[in-house]
DNA sequence: GATGAATGAGGCTTCATTCAT
DNA sequence: AATGAATGAAGCCTCATTCAT
């Protein structure tokens, strides 16, 4: 910071051990999120990662930061799949349906993630913003194409649709409930009216 | 016992003050459920009602008992509306759609109730059971009638549908989200095989 | 007590229902003391007796009063057995040993009573006083006779001995412990000086 | 790590402040156990030690852990005294008597400890187990030696004897009661039969 | 940078006791 | 007299977060 030869003028590059730690933390958190939900105690994550709790706070000041980091790769993958599907599918509606399926697959394998996305708890505001900010534009493109192709009604917005899909994925672990079927119904419902 | 006008011959009627207190409690709880969700601390409810915490435990041994009591009237009303709509509506499907609308109206005006219904927290098991036990049969009747009339697909069960509807009502207070529209989509999606 | 004339000229005689209630209470308390110890919640006793808690407090202002009342008959019986044994036994020491046996029988069949007798909790002061006041003189007579007969050492006081016996009866329900054997040891130890 | 003076190479040594705190806690607990018994509220101990309640739970997850830690030194001392007395005393019986005296000294200076040892409260199971596990073997050795020397009767087991001794130490603070004298009686009583 | 010890607010629940009905 | 509703003090325990080492 005070060195005139500073290699990266803006950000100091992370030390190797810090980077290693960060990955360890992400792995531990991901594992615990699956088994205990994203509200698992910080100490449990620290213990699983073999670090102190302070280390978590250094790398991820808020829980939302940690959750975002854990799922960033998959969210990115989902976002990138949108345009790809649009160009490879038989119709925009088919692409929309397939893309929605990917999103459902992602959410339903993350115990508790869907629930937290729908919470209006301040703690998760940033998480919320990240998810929608990254995925709404993708969904909008798919939806618009389907509308323009005359396949679906035009009065639904992508953001709302995504929230609906997200909501339907809450509690997907219940054996008496099948989120995918419900989402299929929802997407099917886009066709009339 | 011999008096034809005897209101409650067997059970001792509740003392007037106790009944008053119970109502005060229900009102306080209902108000706090709206502003702070159904997980609001017991002490807050007691404070708002102007009673001691023990009084709450006397009337409602578990939190689920309290929540059920708060919403009982409306759940009963919703349950009773099912058969009525079936006989008064133009078609079973129309009745189903209207009934679903009532359910959505109920849920979306109870901040946090839909969320708690989807929680798998043990604390709410009884609540869960009460809601489903009371409403699933009603929904089943409506759905079956619509299936028999050939209006909707036959592979969806009432319980699943209700959970879907319930899920879509989570976070309905968000201005960017309209639970009713999403539920309409879902019900719409029931048509077609 | 059996006097045909007014038994208590000053106090208003108890109403029949009050007397009946009192007995019901004693029975209920006795039963619960056996199964749950003498510290069982007041409400449990009231419930078992089918009365309100207030009724208990009216009849027995403190818990000690209730305990004393419950055991009065047996304590009296034990007290009266002392002189009887002294005159019927082969020797004062034999009488002392037998009498101690009666006391042990009494205590060990009252789950928790021995413990509460040894507590220095203020709540039980009166209980304490009653037991000792009634039984110490009896024990003193037995012990003195044995001392005078040259059968046991003379430096032990009845009160102390009774407390020792009482202590040894604590936890008598434990299968690895036999209060009677320990008390035998203690009494045996009185010989020699 | 490469320092030849490294004190504990494998286990991370406790931080100095933690160790200090632990001692402070033990001291505070010991003091309060004396004045208020071992069931004194956790918050009181924390307050006396000048720490938060969480600190107590960190160091001693259960109350039994805390009690054991408080008395560990003295229990160990008592346990170690057994064999020593056996080899230095004039006779096994004399050793037994002396050892019992040590045990009594220990218990009678710990207000409420004897009582809790006799409680069948689950909370104290571990405490119980620790005491008996550590001291019964010692007592067994002493008792067996005395039996083999023909000094005492052979039908009493160490565990039972220890419980008896423990029981006699309950309420030792009462000026009208002398636990030591009662225990002497008990040990004396071992000689016949 | 990393650690993990300490903090202490915050929630739940039980019961002895009082007192309006 | 009897009732039992209401009170509210007490205790327990968990965890997010800070900060000395």
From TrEMBL, chains A, B, C, D:
PROSITE patterns: HTH_TETR_2
Transmembrane regions: none
Residue ranges the UniProt entry marks as DNA-binding: 41-60
Keywords, ordered alphabetically: DNA-binding, Plasmid, Transcription, Transcription regulation
Ranges of residues in domain HTH tetR-type: 19-78
Entry keyword Membrane: no
InterPro entries named among the record's database cross-references: Homeodomain-like_sf, HTH-type_TetR-like_transc_reg, HTH_TetR, Tet_transcr_reg_TetR-rel_C_sf, TetR_SbtR-like_C
A Pfam family hit: TetR_N
Highest taxon listed in the record's lineage: Bacteria
Signal peptide extent: none
Family annotation (Gene3D superfamilies): Tetracycline Repressor, domain 2 (1.10.357.10)
Keyword DNA-binding: yes
Protein name (record): TetR family transcriptional regulator
């Amino acid at each position: 910071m005070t060195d005139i030869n500073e290699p990266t003028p803006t950000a100091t590059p992370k030390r190797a051990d810090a980077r290693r730690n960060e990955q360890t933390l992400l792995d531990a958190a991901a594992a615990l999120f699956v088994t205990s939900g994203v509200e698992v105690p910080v100490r449990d994550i620290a213990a699983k990662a073999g670090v102190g709790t302070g280390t978590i706070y250094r790398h991820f000041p808020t829980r939302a930061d940690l959750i975002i980091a854990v799922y960033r790769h998959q969210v990115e993958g989902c976002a990138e799949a949108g345009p790809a599907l649009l160009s490879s599918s038989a119709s925009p509606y088919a692409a929309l349906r397939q893309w929605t399926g990917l999103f459902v697959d992602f959410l339903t394998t993350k115990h508790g993630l869907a629930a937290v996305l729908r919470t209006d708890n301040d703690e998760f505001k940033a998480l919320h913003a990240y998810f929608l900010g990254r995925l709404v534009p993708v969904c909008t493109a798919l939806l618009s194409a389907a509308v323009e192709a005359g396949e679906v009604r035009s009065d639904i917005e992508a953001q709302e649709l995504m929230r609906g899909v997200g909501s339907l994925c809450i509690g997907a672990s219940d054996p008496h409930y099948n989120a995918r079927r419900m989402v299929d119904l929802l997407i099917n419902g886009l066709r009339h009216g």
